[in-house]
Amino acid sequence: MKTHFQPLTTLLLLCTLLLLSACAHQVPTRSGFINDYRDLKSLEGDANLQVTPIVDRWDFAAIEVAPVQFISDGQNTRVADADQAALCRSMEQALSQEFSTLSSKNAEQSKHLQIKAAITSVDRSRPILNLITTLALFVPLDNGGVSVEIEAVDEETGRRIAAMSGARNGSIFAMSRYFKSYGHAEAGLRELAHEFRKMFSANQLERSPGSTKII
């Protein structure tokens, strides 16, 4: 009996040890991409979101989503160039889609709002490991995650309108994303773009998608 259970026990122990070091634990970063971090405060109820609230009511005529940067650190060196480019495109698309629903209160306004963002840290899932844990423990456990920094500035003056440093880690409820290396990271980018967009809701009007000029 003892011999029969020994291989299974060994496999479960190995899976546990691997997962202790494998799970994503992304947190808000301080990469230097944002000019000033002193005003960033943790959002109530979400320790992984730090924001600078919009103080002024601010109008604009168009939005520019600048090319998203991928800032490499020790962990990010594992991300291939092609994957970095794909993640940056995903973030650009998410921001463009989110801000296409935002429109100016003043039709005569000529200012442009520039959205600048950087992916500052990434954890990828390991599909093969997740297949093993699914077979052994009936659930995938090696999640992924991502951290970003985003700033909205007046393109003409350079004045900052809003900023955010945020992170998202994969959820056990998003099972299919465990079997894509960057499934959780891509979903996190979309969620963080949405969170940044929500910062403007109290100050600007909303219309149907496509109402704002995205440049």
Q: How much of the polypeptide forms β-strand, as a percent range?
A: 25-35%
Gross CATH architecture: 3-Layer(aba) Sandwich
Please state the CA-atom Rg, rounded to the nearest Å: 20 Å
**CA distance, first residue to last residue:** 69 Å
What's the level 1 CATH class? Alpha Beta
Q: How would you describe the shape?
A: elongated
Which structural class best describes the helix and strand composition? alpha/beta
Number of strands: 10
Taken together, the total number of domains comes to 1
CATH overall fold name: Rossmann fold
Low-confidence stretches: 205-210
What percent of residues adopt helix (DSSP H or I)? 25-40%
Count of DSSP-assigned helices = 4
The major sheet is characterized as: 8 strands, mixed
Helix and strand run: HEEEEHEEHEEHEE
- Average the pLDDT over all residues and give the rounded result: 79
